[in-house]
Amino acid sequence: MIIAVTGTPGVGKTTVSKLLAEKLGYEYVNLRDYAIEKGIGEMKGDELEVEVDELAYNFEKDFAGKDVVVDGHLSHFLKADLVVVLRAHPKLVGERLEARGYPKEKVGENVEAELVDVILVEALEENENVIEVDTTGKTPEEVVEEVLELIKEGVKRRVGIVDWSEVYDEVVPYLRL
Ligand SMILES: Nc1ncnc2c1ncn2[C@@H]1O[C@H](COP(=O)(O)OP(=O)(O)OP(=O)(O)O)[C@@H](O)[C@H]1O
């Protein structure tokens, strides 16, 4: 089974994906590293711009039928059996990206994306099987346990579990207003 773990940068995809792959005994694939390895995309500054169709085509050729957890904010564009959309309070996204030294503009862009569900909406346009998990206040282990439980129960779709409009006031300092 191919499990795509997606979400706004900083929500914890890499941490959760590695742990999930380990628990399931699946291969872990970082989609950015895969694209670079395959020579897909072009570096624009420190950002890798990829053609999503080319990425999805190659990924399917290499991984169809395998057991993989694929980690990346474009992973929901791949042909996956299940898409896990990780969510985190936008303030947490802002704090983490600031701590990574991201420029203010990029922090704001990602906080806004998390606030208005950009990745979730994209994932729902691409795949029927979308599970949303709120990581806020949870450890990576707890998040992985939640995902494993949902998989065990055969849950294929669970969305609409967060509403960040309720915390809008807390994230105003990050927004590019
Ligand atoms: N419940 C949680 N789930 C995942 N990560 C968490 C959680 N709580 C705290 N963290 C921390 O948040 C950080 C998330 O970083 P990580 O690189 O995994 O995010 P990411 O979504 O892959 O980001 P990017 O896409 O920018 O690489 C890590 O330092 C991790 O330890």
From TrEMBL:
It is an enzyme of class 2 (transferase). Residues 99-109 are annotated as: LID. ATP binds at residues 10, 12-15, 100, 138. GO terms for biological process: ribosomal small subunit biogenesis; rRNA processing. The keyword Methyltransferase does not apply. Its EC number is 2.7.4.3. Pfam families: AAA_18. InterPro entries: Adenyl_kinase_AK6, P-loop_NTPase. The keyword Membrane does not apply. Gene3D superfamilies: P-loop containing nucleotide triphosphate hydrolases (3.40.50.300). Keywords: ATP-binding, Kinase, Nucleotide-binding, Ribosome biogenesis, rRNA processing, Transferase. It catalyses: ATP + H2O = ADP + phosphate + H(+); AMP + ATP = 2 ADP. Residues 30-50 are annotated as: NMP. PANTHER family: ADENYLATE KINASE ISOENZYME 6, POS9-ACTIVATING FACTOR FAP7-RELATED. Broad-specificity nucleoside monophosphate (NMP) kinase that catalyzes the reversible transfer of the terminal phosphate group between nucleoside triphosphates and monophosphates. Has also ATPase activity. Involved in the late maturation steps of the 30S ribosomal particles, specifically 16S rRNA maturation. While NMP activity is not required for ribosome maturation, ATPase activity is. Associates transiently with small ribosomal subunit protein uS11. ATP hydrolysis breaks the interaction with uS11. Interacts with uS11. Not a structural component of 40S pre-ribosomes, but transiently interacts with them by binding to uS11. Belongs to the adenylate kinase family. AK6 subfamily. This is Putative adenylate kinase. It comes from Thermococcus gorgonarius. The lineage of its organism: Archaea, Methanobacteriati, Methanobacteriota, Thermococci, Thermococcales.
